[in-house]
Amino acid sequence: MKNYIIIFLLVFNLKVYSFNGFFYAKNDTLKENINSINEHYTFTDSTAYAILNTNPIFLNNWDNDHLFVYKNVGFADIGDTISLQLLNNDADNFKMNWYGSISSSYGRRWGRKHEGLDIPLHTGDSVISTFDGIVRFAKCTSSGYGNCIIIRHLNGLETLYGHLSKIEVSENQFVKSGDLIGRGGSTGRSTGPHLHFETRLFDYSFNPTKIIDINNRELINNSMVFSKKELFPEHFYTEPTVTATSKKEKPVKSKVASTKKKEKPNKSKGTTKSKKNENKKEKKETKGTKKESSKKSKKEITQSKAKNKKDDSKSNHSKKTTTSNTKLKKPDQKSAPKKTDTKKVSTKKQASKQSKTVAPKKATQTKTQKKKS
Fold it and tell me: Which pairing describes strands 133-140 and 117-120: parallel, antiparallel, or unpaired?
């Protein structure tokens, strides 16, 4: 029965295969890939051998020595619309590794991209395959994943399982969904026991929650269609340019000026020396004119200051004279007391004195007259 299946697949491979906008090779190149796979890899699993020799998803870019192998597929080669047939028939199945929570999601973390989900577990906990597929890579790495397993599935995706304490499968081995492939651990660049789980298409990682319902631990749908921007949004994100307003922007020299400087004139040494001397003279003349102008400006400043001082002194003098005049005029304005002649005063005093002396004499005279009588 297996022989009939292999023959059918070989006949079917005569056509051109396309998957998500990327075209695979025709039968001639497939035969070359089959021969190279048979030469380089040994197979203990007949199912894996049949698939690897017939299915174009596995014939192209199959490598057990490197983590990422789709060097000939650029991001521009992936179509604008991506259709994922996650489960082909009822025989296909899906199982998710789950131990209660997710400690780190897909996206930016610690200043760089975290390309998967971190699922906490205990060292030695079982790790299973999510889909049916063939183990492409199973060894310890120095890139931070530690003990790592990569499985390529029949739907064209690859899943990665990192930081394992033990690897329970071998490369080029066929595994079914739910089969044990390794044991959880904390190898590589890890802060504690957990499973690092990634989903990739042509080596480009995408968020596993795009296809998996984490809460129910099941696929969102057996077949899904995404736009390129929906599945890989980070490839369309451009960081905003920050412009420093505080710093002064340096003037950008034009390309024409730079080219002119580079071009050396084919002239004699004498002419260059004469030009240098002329430039020196011009510099001296400009310096002299600058000095003279500065001296003139200084003189003008001193002269203006002297004039201002003179004006100030004149204004002060005029203020003083006006104040003195006002002081002299003040007694004239008010009603001044009348002056008395000193001579008149003296005569009045003498008259009063004489009257005082005469009066007692008269009194004595009257007294004496009375006595005589």
Answer: unpaired
| R_g of the chain computed on alpha carbons | 57
Residue 80 phi/psi, 5° resolution? Answer: -70, -30
pLDDT value at residue 1:
45
Q: How many CB atoms lie within 10 A of CB 21?
A: 13
Alpha carbon distances (Å) from 108 to 117, 202, 215, 290, 334: 12, 21, 22, 61, 98
pLDDT of residue 156: 92
Cα→Cα distances 220→101, 119, 154, Å: 19, 19, 18
Q: What is the dihedral of CA 135, 136, 142, 147, to 10 degrees?
A: 0
Residue closest to 44 by CA, chosen among 131, 183, 178, 169:
169
Between CA 129 and CA 177 the distance in angstroms is: 5
> Token match 């890899």: residue?
41
Among candidate residues 178, 177, 186, 197, the one with its CA nearest the CA of residue 119 = 197
Q: Which DSSP state fits 26?
A: -
Q: Which domains, from first to last, does the chain contain?
A: 2-66 (no CATH), 107-236 (2.70.70.10)
Pairing between β-strand 180-183 and β-strand 126-128 as defined by DSSP bridges = antiparallel
What value, to the nearest 5°, has the Cα angle with vertex 102 and ends 173 and 142?
A: 50
- Could you report how far apart the first and last alpha carbons of the chain are, in Å? 204
Dihedral, CA of residue 23, residue 24, residue 28 and residue 29, to nearest 10 = 120
Task: Look up residue 56 and give its two tokens.
Answer: 């174009």
Distance of CA 316 to the CA centre of its chain: 67
At 277, the amino acid letter reads: N
Smallest CA-to-CA distance from 212 within 372, 105, 309 is with 105
Whether 21 and 82 have beta carbons less than 8 Å apart is answered as: yes
Work out the burial of residue 13: count CB atoms within 10 Å of its CB; fewer than 13 is exposed, 13-18 middle, 19 or more buried: buried
State residue 49's pLDDT score.
86
Q: Which two tokens stand for residue 39?
A: 């030469």
Tokens 């005082």 -> residue: 356
Positions in the chain short of pLDDT 70 = 1-44, 237-278, 280-299, 305, 307, 309-373
**Which amino acid is it at 133?**
G
